Amino acid sequence: GENVEQHPSTLSVQEGDSAVIKCTYSDSASNYFPWYKQELGKRPQLIIDIRSNVGEKKDQRIAVTLNKTAKHFSLHITETQPEDSAVYFCAAREGGGNKLTFGTGTQLKVEL
Amino acid sequence: NAGVTQTPKFQVLKTGQSMTLQCAQDMNHEYMSWYRQDPGMGLRLIHYSVGAGITDQGEVPNGYNVSRSTTEDFPLRLLSAAPSQTSVYFCASSYSVLDTQYFGPGTRLTVL
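Above: the input entities. Below: the structure tokens describing the complete assembly.
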């Protein structure tokens, strides 16, 4: 089955700096890669996703890049703000199947 | 729209007891899934369903049963609770695995 590795497990940045979280996946047929944000005590919520026919997608301060050859994708957050502090999960949908496999999460802390 | 609802919010069980975690959605979503969240391990898929009458196993199905008799409901049954099942359980729904997963508020389960 699909295996998703996520790094780093914790990330601390200064307000206004950029943050990058990286994920690798094992199934070369995987074709859908969402990112979820989970604030403390809350449920996960989708922030951005990308499909395998696209190399990059942006939504305001958030962007995701996908490298199918290397089988990795990354979340980029620019101009970080305190409200960006949360746990971020990447995920990959196994090729042709109906399972979504999540990474182990990155605790992002934005310091003032 | 209530979205995805889960009951109970908290539950304490003794080893060997059985119980059912309830999940319901009012968005007419075909795809529903159950995850458990443990520290440092991300969200792990237990079972999922692509429509009424259809269920399949995820990454960690042992000790859990599901059924999907209606589009709206997707209960998760713990057959004989074990301390290893202490976790936070999230139910999610979406139109398909390729669409935004809407998570419920979660159930915090402790097995003594």
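Note for the figure: The CA atoms of residues 32 and 51 of chain A lie 5 Å apart.
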